[in-house]
Amino acid sequence: MFDKQQLKLYFICGTQDIPEVTTIQHVLKEALSAGITMFQFREKGATALRGNDKEKLAIELLELCRAYNVPFIVNDDIELARKIDADGVHVGQDDQSVNVFATQFQDKIIGLSISDEDEYQQSDLTHVDYIGVGPMYQTSSKKDANAPVGPSMIPTLRAHVGDLPIVAIGGIQIDNTNTIMQHGADGVSVISAIAQSSSVSNTVRQFLQTVE
């Protein structure tokens, strides 16, 4: 059962985000131990794993999340999410329409990316559990990211979506998280600030202090 508290510190990561000196398994385990509240497997780019290799890694990471009772979300790949029985899926504006798969993906968490009011107007939120809003700030983690919309987009969209949970994403660091939360976000999505941290545990704990 989805609870918006699970969005507090939402770690998003794929192999492309991990420094060469470590592995995604090690980084995720450290992040889980320190207290992340949700994890999204986002395997993107030229070096991304595909096919059986991607599925094998997804299962390993899913099992890690299950051990810590943290929801495991798959980015974009509906078939993979179904095949491994992930806890949910997150899709963007350019991905398959939520309505197309929602009926076959019942009792799972569904997240949708919305950057601004125009995208909100084009989105059917009937089956959506939460929206990801951003990028808040300039980000290097997503090559195809839109221009930053800033924290003020959170209350702008809140006026349209009411109590629907909102998680902020894009360029989020420990020192700007408090501002984002003050604008009404239910949590923050973090990629590089955790994935590339020299001390994942300490970084996660510092983030947790700012989102409370």
Distance between the termini: 21 Å
Overall pLDDT level: 94
Task: Return the structural class.
Answer: alpha/beta
Q: Tell me about the biggest sheet? A: 8 strands, parallel, barrel
Please report the number of helical segments: 9
Unreliable spans are none
β-sheet strand percentage? 15-25%
Strand/helix succession: EHEHEHEHEHEHEHEHH
Task: Characterise the protein shown here.
There is one protein chain. With 212 residues, this protein is an alpha/beta fold. The protein is 37% helix and 17% strand. It is built from nine helices and eight strands. The protein has helices spanning 24-34, 51-67, 78-83, 98-102, 117-121, 153-161, 174-182, 192-195, 200-211, and strands spanning 9-13, 38-41, 72-75, 88-91, 109-114, 130-133, 166-169, 187-190. It has an eight-stranded parallel β-barrel with strand order 1-2-3-4-5-6-7-8, surrounded by five helices. Helix 6 links the parallel strand 6 (130-133) and strand 7. Helix 1 packs parallel to helix 2 (51-67), helix 1 packs across helix 9 (200-211) and helix 7 (174-182) runs parallel beside helix 9 (200-211). The radius of gyration is 16 Å and the shape is globular. 2-[(2R,5Z)-2-carboxy-4-methylthiazol-5(2H)-ylidene]ethyl phosphate binds at residues 139-141, 171, 191-192. 4-amino-2-methyl-5-(diphosphooxymethyl)pyrimidine binds at residues 40-44, 75, 113, 142. Mg(2+) binds at residues 76, 95. Pfam families: TMP-TENI. Belongs to the thiamine-phosphate synthase family.
